[in-house]
Amino acid sequence: MREFFRKLVHIIFGLGIAALIQFTPKSIALPVLMTGTFAGIIFRDALVRGYRLPLVSDLIDRLERENVRPGKGALYFALSSLFCLVIFETEVVVPSIVALSLLDGAATIVGYYYGRHPVFRGKTAEGSVAGILVAFFAMLPLVSPLEALVSAVTAGLVELFSPIDDNLTIPVFVCIVLTLMKGI
């Protein structure tokens, strides 16, 4: 049950960032995301040093995996979102963040509870397929069907094989793919 709630927070966090970027001007979204990321760095540093922070420590205790530096995934998610917002156009950043939040969340939940066919590093075929399908359908209102399909498959492959935390890599790869496809 802990994994389900952990990924539910991941999905809500990601969709919140995507909504911020989609529905506010870049001149507002960028400083809000920068401030949140900076605050996250400060909180994470305090947690790593052993300080207890009201609310934050309780949330981390309830949601973080064992033997993982506290808040690492959330910080990487915010950093990759910020990087993409600075480098790429908003029209490709929003689908990339939606892809990360929903694909990663669905893949983990389905793989954890229903996965029976291991593929790579403990990830399952069932989780990967579910994540790709969820990302594809979620991106349809944002991009063309072909862009959604290629982006979802790209995100799924990055999530499956990336040697670096997928919270850092999925948005960047999806932004690159979408930027290239929009240029064709």
Describe what you observe in this structure.
The chain has about 180 residues and is mainly α. Helices cover about 80% and strands about 5% of the residues. The protein has helices at about 1-25, 25-50, 55-65, 70-85, 90-115, 125-140, 145-160, 165-184; strands at about 120, 125. It has a two-stranded antiparallel ribbon with strand order 1-2. A hairpin with a 2-residue loop joins β1 and β2 (about 125). The longest helix has 25 residues, at about 90-115. The radius of gyration is 16 Å and the shape is globular. The model has no long low-confidence stretch (mean pLDDT about 90).
- Order of helical and strand elements: HHHHHEEHHH
Shape: globular
- Write down the Rg: 16 Å
Give the N-to-C terminal Cα separation: 44 Å
The biggest sheet, with number of strands, parallel, antiparallel or mixed sense and barrel status, is: 2 strands, antiparallel
Count of alpha and pi helical runs: 8
- SS elements, strand count: 2
Beta-strand percentage?
A: under 5%
Helix percentage range:
over 70%
- SS class: mainly alpha
Mean pLDDT: 92
Question: What is the structure about, briefly put?
Answer:
With 184 residues, the protein is an all-alpha fold.
Task: Please name the defining characteristics of this protein.
single chain, 184 residues, mainly alpha, two-stranded antiparallel sheet, 2 strands
Write the layout of secondary structure elements.
Blueprint (H helix, E strand, L loop, with lengths): L1 H22 L2 H23 L7 H8 L8 H16 L2 H25 L3 E3 L2 E2 H15 L5 H17 L4 H18 L1
Antiparallel strand pairs: 1-2
Helix pairs in contact: 1-4, 1-5, 2-4, 4-8, 5-6, 5-7, 5-8, 6-7, 7-8
